[in-house]
Amino acid sequence: MNEIFIIVKKELTELLRDKKTLINSVLLPILLLPVLMFGVIKVMEMVRKSNHEKSIKIGLVNAPEAFMKLVKNDTLNQVTTFDDSIDFKSLIDDETIQTAIVFPKNFISQMDSMENSAVQIYRNGSKENVNGRISNLMDIYGGQLEQKRMTQLNLSPDKLTPFKEEFVEVGEQKELIGKSIGGWIPYIFILTMWGGCMLAGIDLVTGEKERKTIETTLSLPISKFKVLFGKAIVASLLGFVPALLNLIGLIVGLRFIDGIPDEIKMALNEMLSFQSVTMILLLLIPFSIFLSGLIIMLVAGATTFKEAQSKVSPIIMFLILPLVLAAMPGIEFTWATVFIPVLNIGLGVKEIAAGTIDMTLYAVMLLSLLAFAVASIYFSYKKFSDENAILK
Amino acid sequence: MIQLNNLTKSFTTKTGKGFKKSTTTVNAVNEVSFECKPGRIFSLLGANGAGKTTTLRMIAGIINPTSGSAIVDGVDISEGNDEVKKRIGFLTGSTGLYERLNPDETLDFFGKLYKIPPAQLKERKEYLFEKLGINEFRKKRMGQMSTGMKQKVSIARTLIHDPEVLIFDEPTSGLDVITAESIIALIRESKAANKTVIFSSHIMSEVDLLCDDLAIINKGSIIYNDSFDNFRKEMTAPNLTQEFINRVKEA
User: Which domains does chain A have, with CATH numbers?
Assistant: First the structure.
């Protein structure tokens, strides 16, 4: 055990003296989420503000006076009136106008005789700001006409609303938000963990070959298993610690960044309680060992960093696909999914975040991850002991 | 003392296209036997790819033999590599040092793995640093050192546990004459201290300077094994290099 500790200490010292490792494993993970959260909030604020201040060019045909008044009330609306319906598509394409509203010629009489009418709205579906504001105008105007008709018909609004739906929410806010965004949390951990394990794994095995120290390491008076296990522990740590720092970054970000809606903030705080975080971290320990073993096994035969990278890069697909599946609705954490690595973490974290995890399934998942970790260490040891591969 | 009896190492490679796979087995070292005695310097000579490095790696416990045995300082390598490694100092021309550690940390790392008691390790480290002139750069990282400085640290690393057996695999390869001289001095001192020394080389001037016994290896098999004095007596060529070339060609 002491020998493994000596190997771990030496490998950690070496890795942490490498600026690249320090930036990737410590600095980036801790700053990533707060910077991302802060950036997204600021960008959204800016977009909202700029959309609100943007003037829109509206083309109107046969617009009734009441609607015209409503449009002109907002000074940001630039109105052009047309006598007749023309090629509005071209006008929108060349940005003369951004949208056109065409009322029928007999619109007023249709309204007076309480008929149904059709108003054509020319628009580009991708211009959300323009379309949103026009929809809003139409809703207000439609509401005014509705009100007028009800008065004429002596109808009260209650009579037109036979019943109202009243929802009684039995799920907790935490469960609702946990189920919807909890599936995305593992993305952060697992991809950061993958990056950390990959860089460390390649540096500790292929890097030794490139630096011509592998023979020195193999001449050490300890077994190859201890050397390999020491390296796997370090690679796991370099994967686990960034994931932990990610989490710390997320918690710190939630606490100090303004602009996050209170209900989301509260639910996230509840989701990231001490118990939830401990349960998530417990899963990540065997998973980081599994990843490290897998990476070492794959890169043991590589002679250059580039070759090693090309060998391990495709694995990321096997991480992303199960995570995408886990985030999809309808896929549940059950006995059928509990043994599938990555997918089980994705689903399990979702359940932990929602506070609905079945503890038996959790224990089984933990045990299955441990079994995968042991298997990956065994196979990486086999590959590390392969003289053809390691001394290539 | 090192005793090799019919030591063999085979490497199997898989080749082929599509579903047709074939395996090829090559004996890199084929039934090699020789003996290296304490207080004498044994040279293993051979051209590139002759099997020198594979033989020395087996003796050093870095790779396992396919068959045969080797007894190093009374320990059979088949009984456990770790025990053998504790008795050996292994130095090669291409053995790298951990670039992000300094000499102090490097020797501490090796010393701890050799299980040298802390006080003894400190004393031995100071002795080697003083003797090899490492003190002035003992806190400098290996990656920032010159080849000569690194070679001094490599020597200190090889000797930190005061091994009974020293294995040098082309130790002066790629070094300038001044740095190579420090290695030659080390080999001589080891002989004087009654250590068992084996070194591989294809530089005949080094062999001439140091060798007591020698073996010539060609295509994995020993083609000559005797004392250097007898080798000289049997020489028909005008110099060592020519004699070596002739013997390899005749084999």
Answer: 2-34+173-390 (no CATH), 55-160 (3.40.190.10)
